[in-house]
Amino acid sequence: MANNKSARKRIRVNERNRVQNRPYRSAARTLVKKAELAIAAGDQAEATVAVGRAVQMLDRANSKNVIHKNNAARRKSRLQAKFNAAFAA
């Protein structure tokens, strides 16, 4: 357990941030999964909308420092690559 005042405060702050960040992280994961399912289903119109929403949520999580910018960029890149591979010409 924490041995000094600053360590106890850090525990409180980390817990508060964890609770506040959780909805953004969860929503990003959910939207990415929905986009991947739409891509797998083969419906290009639905997949386009789903990928757009997923990218938007990843950008939002990034802007609020919930996830690292490179993590968001990597996830968006992989999702877009799956989309492009599925619906290439």
Features:
Methane Monooxygenase Hydroxylase, Chain G, domain 1, single chain, 3 helices, elongated, 89 residues
Characterize the structure shown.
This protein is mostly helical and 89 residues long. The chain has one domain: Up-down Bundle (Methane Monooxygenase Hydroxylase, Chain G, domain 1), CATH 1.20.58. Helix content is 84%, strand content 0%. It has three helices and no strands. The protein has helices spanning 5-41, 44-63, 69-86. The N and C termini lie far apart (59 Å).
Helix content: over 70%
CATH superfamily grouping: Ribosomal protein S20
Radius of gyration: 17 Å
The count of β-strands is: 0
Layout of helices and strands, plus pairs?
Blueprint: H1 5-41, H2 44-63, H3 69-86
Helix pairs in contact: 1-2, 1-3, 2-3
In brief:
The protein is mainly alpha-helical. The chain contains three helices and no strands. The chain is elongated and about 60 Å long.
